[in-house]
């Protein structure tokens, strides 16, 4: 069964410092992976997906198949990055493409 | 246009009561998902609709949970004889197609069973 692990429940960094939110997955085949973010009092929203290979709000994530990881990185954290971040993996095939989420990492960027 | 909406936003139910949670997806979205999010956890899949057809209900935790989307738009998640372990945030999400595109989430309904 596919699984997503986010080992850190809480992560604090100072403004301007680099940040890395870890995500590991177990999956057979070629995975798609997403990062979703939930800012305070807002709904869950897509941050980025690996197949688009884009940078959103300065965040990037590289899929490392050897390490089965999809860590989210930003070189210089900002206070507005404080939020809950979830790594997610869609079901590989079939009629339902539901997402399997990790348990989330609460990022706090300190002034 | 408007995003996914859910009502009510908050629901308190006494143990044993039945509840109905509503989801209005983005207009024209084919796929609709329900997730359950317990405190401190990520969302967990409950059920999936493609238009009006419920194609996957493998995540429903018991036969007390029932979902429908009769006209392929609005969906209702019903929980019968609520138990304390049903307390959670229930999230609805929709997506345009069926190929694993991004899902757009509603604000959720926080259910508290006392």
Give me a quick take on this structure.
The complex is a heterodimer of chains A (111) and B (114). Chain A is built from no helices and 11 strands. By secondary structure, chain A is mainly β.
Walkthrough of the structure:
The complex is a heterodimer of chains A (111) and B (114). In chain A, the strands form 3 sheets. In chain A, strands 2, 5, 6, 9, 10 and 11 form a 6-stranded mixed β-sheet that branches. A 3-stranded antiparallel β-sheet of chain A has the order 3-8-7, with no helix packed on it. In chain A, strands 1-4 form a two-stranded antiparallel ribbon. Chain A has strands at residues 3-5, 10-14, 19-21, 24-26, 34-38, 45-49, 60-61, 72-74, 83-90, 99-101, 105-110. The radius of gyration of chain A is 14 Å and the shape is globular. Chain A starts with a strand and ends with a strand. In chain A, a hairpin with an 8-residue loop joins strand 9 (83-90) and strand 10. Chain A has a single domain (3-110), classed as Sandwich (Immunoglobulin-like), CATH 2.60.40.10. With 111 residues, chain A is mainly beta. Chain B has 114 residues and is mainly β. Chain B has a single domain (5-113), classed as Immunoglobulin-like, CATH 2.60.40.10. Chain B is 0% helix and 48% strand. Chain B is built from no helices and 11 strands. In chain B, strands 2, 4, 5, 6, 9, 10 and 11 form a 7-stranded mixed β-sheet that branches. A 4-stranded antiparallel β-sheet of chain B has the order 1-3-8-7, with no helix packed on it. In chain B, strand 9 (88-95) and strand 10 (104-105) form a beta hairpin. Chain B is globular. The N and C termini of chain B lie far apart (37 Å). Classes of the chains: A mainly beta (111), B mainly beta (114). The A-B interface holds A 4, 6, 9, 32, 34, 36, 43-46, 49, 86, 88, 90, 94-104 and B 3-4, 31, 33, 35, 40-45, 48, 50, 55-56, 59, 91, 95, 98-100, 102-108.
